[in-house]
Amino acid sequence: MTDLSLPARLRAAADLTEARLVAALADAPLPGERLRPPRLLDAMRHGSLDGGKRLRPFLVIEAAALFGLAPEQAVTAGCALECVHCYSLIHDDLPSMDNDLLRRGRPTVHAAFGEATAILAGDSLLTLAFDLLSGPDAHPDPARRIELVRVLARASGLGGMAGGQILDLAAEGRFAGGTRLALTLGQIRDLQAMKTGALLAAAVDMGAVLGGAGPEARAALAAYGRAVGAAFQIADDILDLEGSAEAMGKAVGKDDGAGKATLVAALGRAAAGALLADLVRDAQAALIPFGARGAVLAEAARFVAERQA
Amino acid sequence: MTDLSLPARLRAAADLTEARLVAALADAPLPGERLRPPRLLDAMRHGSLDGGKRLRPFLVIEAAALFGLAPEQAVTAGCALECVHCYSLIHDDLPSMDNDLLRRGRPTVHAAFGEATAILAGDSLLTLAFDLLSGPDAHPDPARRIELVRVLARASGLGGMAGGQILDLAAEGRFAGGTRLALTLGQIRDLQAMKTGALLAAAVDMGAVLGGAGPEARAALAAYGRAVGAAFQIADDILDLEGSAEAMGKAVGKDDGAGKATLVAALGRAAAGALLADLVRDAQAALIPFGARGAVLAEAARFVAERQA
C-alpha cells in the first residue's frame, strides 16, 4: 500500500487494527482461560472497538514499514499498544479521575456499565495488551516479543503514562485541597511527555523493535517519537481551546475550567503554535537517515500537528 | 536451603520477594522512564511491601526448585506474580468494588491515598509485573520470559482473575438491582477457579516454565496448581466463617452478609471440609512423578488447607 495517500493509509491501518481487536475480544476463551464473562467482554468492546483514529497502531505499522515489514506483521503489536491507550481512557474517565460521561461521541464505559465494570474492563485491556505481545503473531522471534513487552510496560507504568496521569491530577490540586499547582515549564513538559508522549514514542519504538532496527535507526526514531508526542499534546490543547465538541466527540473547553497544566496556557497561543511548528520540523529532521522511505512518517508528523479532531 | 522446614522456607522466600520488590520500587527511574512520581511510588509501596505470606512467589520458587533452580533464579518471576496479586487487592478493595478499609491490619490504599491514586497504583503494579518479566534477571532465555508473560497475562485477565472478580460482583447481585444470584455448584467452581485459583495455578506453572519443564512435568504441576488453588479458596472461606478479624488482619464474616457464593455455603461446612481434604490428596498425588523432590510442595498443599490466617 506504498502508493496510498496518508488518509488512506490511516484508514487501512485502522481497519486492520479493528479486525485484530475484534478477534482478540472474541467470545471463545483461549487456552489457559476458563470462560470469558459476557458483561466484561461487552465493556471491553465498548471501550476499545469502533473508536478513534488508531494513530498509535498506525505509527507502529509505519515505523515497522521502514524496515520492510508489511502492516499485517505489525498490527498485533499495534493492537497491544491500542489496548493500553483504551484502558487509560476508561480509567481516566472514571468519576474519581476526570469524571467524563462522553467519549468519542458515546457514553464512557463507566457511564454505560458502572464503575466497577469499567475498572475491570480497563484492567483487562491492559492485561490483554501483554497477552497479545506474547504470541508468535506479534513477531516470530521471542527476543523481539519480549523487547516489545519491555518498551510497552515502561512507557505505560509509573515512570510513563500512569505517572503522567498522577502528575496531572496533582497539578489540578486534587491532592492539595483543591488548590491548583503552578507548574514550571519543565514540569509541564515532564507531565505531558509522560501522560501522552510516552505511548506515542513507544509506538514508533515498537515499530523499530519489530523491524530489528540497529542502535542508530532506533535512536533516530526515538527522536521522531518524542517530537511527535510533544506535538500531539500541544495540538490537543489547542483543539481543546478552539475545537468544537461535535468534531471532538467529547467535552471541550474543560482544560481552562479544570486548571489543566498545558503549554498553551503557559506560553500563550502564538508561542505554542510556533513550538508546534518547531516540533514538526524536529520530527521530520529525525527521519533524514531514512531518506525517501521516511515520507509517510514525515507527513504523519504534520497531520498530528494540524488535525482538527 | 533444602533442609529447612516449611515455615523457614516460606519466610526465606518472603524475604527474597520483599527485597526484590523494594528494588523494583526504588526512587530512581529506569532507562525509558522519565521520573517516578513520589506519591504514586508511595501508594504502590503501601499496597505491595511488608504484606502477606508471599505464598505465590513461594510457589514459583519451589516449583522452579524441582528443576534445580535456586530461589534467586525464580524470585523476579515470583515478584511479577506478586505485583499482579497486590494490584488485584488494591482494586478489589475500592469503594465501587468490595469497599474495604482494612487490609493486612492497615488502611487499604484508597483509604490512605484516595481513590484516584489507588486506581493508578493498581494499574502501575500490574504494568510493573510485565516490566519485571521482560528483563534477563527473570530468566536469561527470552523464549522462557515471553512464555512467563503469556502464562501471567492469561491467568490475570478477562478469562482469569479479572473475569472471576466480575463473576463475583455479579453473584452478589451488583448488576441486577441488588438481588443475589443463586449460582450452581459449577458456577461457583468457575468463579473461584478464576478469581483465586488462576493466579495460584499460574505460580506453579511459571516455576515449571522457568525450569524448562517438559510437557508431562508441566501437566503434572498444572494438576497440582489447580488442586491447591481450589483448596486455598475453600480454606479461605472456612477462615472467613471461623477465623478472627485479628488473625486475618481484615474484616471477617463478610461473606455471609454480602451473599458471597462459596462452596462452604453451598455444600455446608462438613462437606466442604471433606472436599478440602480430597483436594490436598489430589495435589499431593499430582507430585508423585517428582518423587522425593516433591516433598516441599506436598507439605505446602497441606499448609494451604490448614492455615489459620
Largest interface: A-B, 65 and 65 residues
Assign the CATH topology of chain A: Farnesyl Diphosphate Synthase
* CATH H-tier superfamily of chain A: Farnesyl Diphosphate Synthase
Radius of gyration over C-alpha positions of chain A, nearest whole angstrom: 19 Å
- Residues in helix, % of chain A: 55-70%
- How many domains, in number, for the residues of chain A? 1
What structural class do you assign from the helix and strand content of chain A? mainly alpha
The second-level CATH architecture of chain A is Orthogonal Bundle
Shape of chain A: globular
Mean pLDDT figure of chain A: 93
Distance between the termini of chain A: 25 Å
Strands of the widest sheet of chain A, in order across it, are 1-2
Task: Point out poorly predicted stretches of chain A.
Answer: none
Q: Provide the β-strand percentage band of chain A.
A: under 5%
CATH class of chain A: Mainly Alpha
The major sheet of chain A is characterized as: 2 strands, antiparallel
Describe this structure in words.
The structure is a homodimer of 309-residue chains. Chain A has 309 residues and is mostly helical. Chain A has one domain: Farnesyl Diphosphate Synthase (Orthogonal Bundle). Helix content of chain A is 68%, strand content 1%. Chain A has 15 helices and two strands. The first copy, chain A, has helices at residues 6-24, 38-46, 55-65, 71-92, 109-113, 115-134, 142-156, 161-171, 185-210, 215-242, 245-248, 254-258, 263-267, 269-286, 295-306; strands at 102-103, 106-107. In chain A, strands 1-2 form a two-stranded antiparallel sheet. In chain A, a hairpin with a 2-residue loop joins strand 1 (102-103) and strand 2. In chain A, helix 4 (71-92) packs antiparallel against helix 6 (115-134) and helix 10 (215-242) runs antiparallel to helix 14. The two termini of chain A are 25 Å apart. The interface between A and B is large, with 65 and 65 residues.
